[in-house]
């Protein structure tokens, strides 16, 4: 398996959805799950940010006259279906389905054409950047997708190809409590169950230590280690993304 990583950058005014992310730098969208076939595309995205940004995104996402995914200038029938699975003032979880992608000139449509079945995409939006990582088979036509992306982009969009190589993202970015040592996992699960992380807290550290029958100092140490690991995993990609803003992106090393 190989990984194809690239970023599409948007000028302000080139896309109404990306304009919101440009105007609100704290807004961020990440694909939780994405699947496709020649017969359709379906995905789940998590969007977080200021309440006013999410209200604008709500309006644009479901607007019938705009395709949120098209990168070309050719007309696309916007028969996308959207359903909000979760909504609160600072977050949305949105399910999207398109029964046919034949006339939608998007990254997903082009990837389906050139890379074939068996690919797994991951995508993020932040600021003026729409970043893609696609896990693909070794024999997938990455050079064909590379050329198609360059040819398809409309005015106001630019593509930066980062790399084609080993699947490092997929090996490094998975976060699972199963990777924690047993004692730390037990401590943090007990804290969550007891409501320790609720506001206001429903239990004290002393209460949890009593349930686990361990000294309070031991519980505090285990929670600190677990929290440090979880937070480190969560923010590592954001820190890497910020670093990308200040360093030149590497050239494609293999096609």
**Beta-strand percentage range:** 25-35%
**Could you say how many structural domains there are in total?**
2
Radius of gyration: 21 Å
Number of strands: 8
Q: Strands across the major sheet, in which order?
A: 4-5-3-2-6-7-1-8
What is the 3D form? elongated
Number of helices: 8
Structure description:
The structure is a single chain. The chain is of the alpha+beta class. The chain folds into two domains: about 1-175, no CATH class; about 175-235, Arc Repressor Mutant, subunit A. About 35% of the residues lie in helices and about 25% in strands. The chain is built from eight helices and eight strands, in the order E-H-E-E-H-E-E-H-E-E-H-E-H-H-H-H. The protein has helices spanning about 15-25, 50-60, 105-115, 140-150, 170, 180-195, 205-210, 215-245, and strands at about 1-10, 30-35, 40-50, 80-90, 90-100, 120-125, 130-135, 155-165. An eight-stranded antiparallel beta sheet has the order 4-5-3-2-6-7-1-8. Strand 4 and strand 5 (about 90-100) form a beta hairpin. The radius of gyration is 21 Å and the shape is elongated. Residues about 240-255 have low confidence and may be disordered. InterPro entries: HTH_bacterioopsin (IPR007050), HVO_2928_N (IPR056529), RNA_pol_sigma_r3/r4-like (IPR013324), WH-like_DNA-bd_sf (IPR036388). This is HTH DNA binding domain-containing protein. Keywords: Transcription, Transcription regulation. Pfam families: HTH_10, HVO_2928_N.
């Amino acid at each position: 398996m190989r990984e194809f990583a690239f970023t599409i950058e948007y000028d302000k005014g080139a896309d109404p959805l990306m304009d919101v992310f440009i105007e609100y730098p704290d807004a961020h969208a990440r694909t939780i799950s994405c699947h496709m076939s020649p017969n359709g595309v379906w995905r789940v995205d998590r969007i977080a940010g200021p309440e006013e940004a999410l209200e604008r995104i709500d309006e644009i996402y479901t607007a019938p006259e705009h395709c949120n995914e098209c990168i070309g200038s050719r007309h696309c029938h916007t028969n996308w279906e959207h359903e909000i699975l979760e909504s609160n003032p600072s977050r949305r979880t949105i399910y999207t389905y398109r029964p046919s992608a034949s006339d939608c000139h998007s990254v997903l449509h082009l990837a389906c054409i050139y890379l074939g079945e068996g690919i797994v995409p991951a995508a993020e939006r932040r600021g003026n950047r729409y970043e893609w990582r696609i896990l693909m088979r070794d024999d997938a036509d990455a050079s064909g997708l590379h050329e198609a992306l360059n040819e398809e982009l409309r005015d106001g969009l630019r593509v930066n190809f980062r790399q084609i190589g080993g699947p490092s993202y997929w090996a490094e970015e998975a976060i699972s409590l199963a990777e924690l040592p047993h004692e730390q996992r037990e401590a943090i699960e007990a804290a969550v169950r007891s409501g320790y992380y609720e506001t206001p807290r429903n239990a004290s550290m002393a209460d949890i230590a009593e349930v686990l029958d361990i000294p309070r100092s031991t519980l505090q140490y285990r929670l600190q280690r677990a929290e440090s690991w979880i937070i480190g995993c969560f923010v590592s990609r954001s820190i890497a993304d910020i670093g990308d803003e200040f360093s030149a992106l590497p050239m494609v090393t293999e096609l």
